[in-house]
Please model this.
Amino acid sequence: MSQKQRIREQIVREKRFLSANSILNFGQSERQDKIRQTEGLLEKAEDVSSRLLSVHDEIERDTQHLKKREESITLGNFEARIDEIAGQNRLIEVQRDKLSDELKSLTTDTNTRATLDIRRAEIKAKTIEIGNM
Model:
């Protein structure tokens, strides 16, 4: 038997007792005070049970929300996506290094050709100068 039911039965018994003894009126105010106290206890018990249900519902909602978040993380497969992006970054860096080496090679070739063109021009100028003498 729950506490609410016991309190309700106690209230019913006290009301019956009061109605049976209404003729005597002896101690009636004390009994009414006791009934009021018991009714107050009953209201408090009902408030506690309603708050308990409310908290239980909140816990249930939070649990469901947490499960949904965990599922989205699992379904998102973030670890695999991060690994894939890291692999792509490594390939891009290798390609960048190759292109950088090629650029250095081309720059060296260009400098060599420019130097060669300067030497040719100098030789041509000296040849013309010797021919004019």
Remarks:
- Helices lie at 3-20, 28-76, 78-131.
- The radius of gyration is 49 Å.
- DSSP finds three helices and no strands in the chain.
- The longest helix spans residues 78-131.
